[in-house]
Amino acid sequence: MVDSDGTTTIIGPCATTCPDGLARQCRDVGPSHRSEPPPRDPSPSSTIATMELVFDLWIRSATVVDGSGAEPRRASVGVRNGRIDVIEPDGDDRGPSSSSAAITLDATGMVLAPGFIDVHNHSDVAPLIEPTMPSTIRQGVTTVVVGNCGMSPFPASSAAELASWGGGTDGDPPAEELAFDSFGAYLERIATARPTVHVAALIGHGSVRELAMGQERRAPTPVELETMRGIVAEAMDAGAVGLSTGLIYAPGMYASTGEIVALAEEAASAGGIYASHIRGEGAHVFRAVDEAIEIGHRANIPVHISHLKCESSHAWGRAEELVARVHSAGATGDQYPYAAWSSVLRSLLPPWAPVGELRSLLTDPAMERRLVAAIEQGEDEEFQSSVDGVGWERIVIEGTADRSNDGLDVAAIARRRGIEPVEACLELLIADPETTCTGHAMHEDDVRAIRADPEIMVASDGVATSPRGGEAATPVHPRTYGTFPRVLGPFVRDGTLTLQAAVRAMTSLPADRFGLSGRGRISGGAWADLVLFDPAVITDRATYQQPHAFPDGIEAVVVEGDLAWRRGTDTIERSGRVLRRRG
Ligand SMILES: [Zn+2]
After folding, report:
1. What is the pLDDT of residue 94?
2. Is 284 exposed, middle or buried (0-12, 13-18, 19+ CB in 10 A)?
3. pLDDT tens-digit map of 537-570
4. Which domain holds residue 387?
5. Taking residues 389-407, what's their average pLDDT?
6. What spacing in Å lies between the alpha carbon of 44 and ligand 1's midpoint?
7. Between 20 and 30 A from 257 (CA), which of 84, 451, 467, 571?
8. Ligand 1: centre distance to CA 310 (Å)
């Protein structure tokens, strides 16, 4: 509705005002702020007409969960020039403040939290494909950290690698447009795209290694190591927030601990963080965590372990021990709240069997036997099997060239073809090296035990996408749409953790660890990245079968004071920026 003074008011809890939802009732009400300032009453007799607009946004009578972990409290929040200007307790805002805002949101019954920070995200080039990033903003996320798992768009080494960053759908930018001369040029391109959320970026070790030495399975020469150090140092200078590794992926998996230490030193001297997809997350998970911790000690860099999990029956039941090990070393970690991982199917291959060499390897029966044994049982010290302790029926094909296999588990595909599951896996990889899959490899009890720990951050591991257009046909993990509402809804309501602990794990905890100053808290002077949600309603709706589903319960998302999205509208404002590490 439009108030008498021309300002826009969005009515609060829908149940009491519009049973069909605030959206329909309030759609297209009044002008959107900034792009089109609200009309003023020209009459000199009007007291309101002469009143200056004090706030860009006034959020009235919210239950403020401020990101610090403090108890929720009732307050109204005024936003000006992109920052939180006033926090007025008890919702007592009957003074001039509420009527002097361009936009007022009545937040009675709603929780107001800092915008969520997704520290493990793969939307590296998503802003160049669809800058509104609907699956991200509509979860309440206002900042993503990209460049994870050792993969960053700069440096890219080949056309094939560039193409792998594209969404693979009509309308994607051509691969050459995703080629960047430097890390700084990449960040600049993202800034120019003006995404809907802020983007901070890590430099990926695998990408750096590939540029310096291709897919070589050996230690770098001193010259190659110097080259790699130089690329990392330059990226840090350009504003990268740290270095990432993906030690189950080629070529990152070929690196020794010492090689990573050398590159982490470059990130450390610039004040960055080391974020790692560790070398094993099942039978080898403790050894892999210890390697990350060792890298932290030797390079003197803060360590962050990505998507903590206990994968395979070899690790089930050890979640508390796992997070204790992480904490005892002063490391941090994040988690997506699901019992299945999602990755490329080639992540099942041992380091010595790159997907491009499968055909030739399989011509040698002895090699074939060794490969089958490695995939199904792993190799001591060297390689962890993703199938052992899991089973082929829990490895489900997400997307592959022959779409008739999508959604089927590898055991079922093998039965169809009258062959062994491992053979079906290899056939799928030879037919399409980019085949993706989900591995239902974690135990729900461990997922909950990790999530119950208030010091573990929430992160999606997703790539921003949309249920409309070509992207709707792309198979994705439900975490892409559901991660944050799933924690705030089902996990909070069943008592796994408190609402304030959940919000902290999504806001101030990641902001502080990744050096995103001025974000992650509702406090005076902080950037006004905010999310308003209904705590009784909020939930994820995305499933493995139907992942392209927005969550319920998110009411509005604010990015630096701009109302980026609100329930019932399709419009998404783009107010995100590139967040560079400050030296
Ligand atoms: Zn990963």
Report:
1. 56
2. buried
3. 999 999 999 999 999 999 999 999 999 999 999 8
4. 345-439
5. 95
6. 62
7. 451
8. 14
206: Cα separation from own chain's centroid: 19
Q: Where are the alpha helices (DSSP H) in 14-153?
A: 14-17, 22-26, 96-99, 126-129, 134-137
Distance from residue 323's CA to the centre of ligand 1 (Å):
17
Q: Is residue 339 part of a domain?
A: no
407 lies in some domain: yes
- From 455, 246, 447, select the one nearest 331 (Cα to Cα): 455
Cα-to-centroid distance, 182 and ligand 1 (Å): 23
pLDDT in tens, 59-107: 999 999 999 999 999 999 999 999 999 999 975 555 545 568 999 999 9
Residue 352 lies in a domain: yes
pTM score, whole prediction: 0.89
Distance 201 CA to ligand 1 centre (A): 15
Residue 560 CA to residue 83 CA, distance in Å, equals 6
The CA distance from 117 to 341, in Å, is 20
- The count of domains in the chain is 1
Neighbours of ion ligand 1 (CB under 5 A): 149, 277
Distances 384 to 134, 164, 203, 324, 367 between C-alpha atoms, Å:
36, 25, 25, 22, 18
Mean pLDDT value across residues 29-42:
34
d(CA 275, ligand 1 centre) in Å: 10
C-alpha to C-alpha distance for 205 and 138, rounded to whole angstroms:
31
**Separation of CA 356 and ligand 1 centre (Å):** 21
Q: What angle do CA 202, 203, 205 make, to 5 degrees?
A: 125
215: its two tokens: 């897919």
* 108 is a domain residue: no
C-alpha 141 – ligand 1 centre gap (Å): 19
Query: Distance from the CA of 387 to the center of ligand 1, in angstroms?
Result: 17
